């Protein structure tokens, strides 16, 4: 429609320009569609717990002469309120990683500290499921980046590993330095023996609000935003996150991020004359 009309009008200017204009329009449309989807998704995700809270508060009022029922409904209200809080917090985190340039206040961040923090965050949940957590290889390694964002990224991966694993399994976190043409990278692999992710879903799990099993994700307090945040943090640090998985066997999520020494050298290069 519109794009074609524009292309017809500017056709005499040369096919190269026409192509650029059409591509621009298509890209603008795509961005607009993504934005609209996102707003629709957020609205839907907010509506679910708010709707539940509203119904539950009515139930509490109707059950005012049955203290046991009141207690039961109040408990469920608490769960829904927690869900709402998690969602809002993750939305804030996502908007922060999308808007802030992480390298503006980058510093060397010790991998050992990041791993300890991530493990701490999941300690309670891992304990109830009797999941063993083991970390190795982190000594002396540092990443060049934004401490808060890196902590959020690794924390999400470890949290997922625990959430999507059955009881009495093992979650491993292994770090190492790998040589790469643009400077050394730090690789952190989070491996679980959980439910795994099918090939079809593997391509989509990094999308905002995508969940393989929405019911299960909600049960564990998931928002569907965690891996989108991880992917964004990795990319804005000049790194990447990849996933390997075998259904029913487990998954490995691997973060590759710039090593502190190498990245700092690169930054210094920019300021050197000549
Ligand atoms: P959620 O808040 O639902 O965990 P994420 O963005 O972190 O959202 O993950 C998206 C989906 O990817 C999850 O709902 C889950 O289906 C799947 N997933 C993520 N990590 C794992 C894992 N370690 N093992 C199996 N499935 C996973």
Give a brief outline of the structure.
The chain is α+β, with helices and mostly antiparallel strands and 274 residues long. The protein has helices at 2-10, 15-62, 67-99, 111-128, 147-163, 199-202, 214-219, 226-236, 260-271, and strands at 107-110, 132-136, 142-145, 170-178, 185-192, 240-246, 250-258. β4 (170-178) and β5 (185-192) form a beta hairpin.
Question: Would you give an account of this structure?
Answer:
- The structure is a single chain.
- By secondary structure, the chain is of the alpha+beta class.
- The chain is built from 9 helices and 7 strands.
- The chain has helices at 2-10, 15-62, 67-99, 111-128, 147-163, 199-202, 214-219, 226-236, 260-271, and strands at residues 107-110, 132-136, 142-145, 170-178, 185-192, 240-246, 250-258.
- The strands form 2 sheets. A 5-stranded mixed sheet has the order 2-4-5-7-6. The protein has a two-stranded antiparallel ribbon with strand order 1-3.
- The longest helix has 48 residues, at 15-62.
- The protein is globular, with a radius of gyration of 23 Å.
- The chain starts with a helix and ends with a helix.
- The site of adenosine-5'-diphosphate has 23 residues, from helix 5 and helix 8.
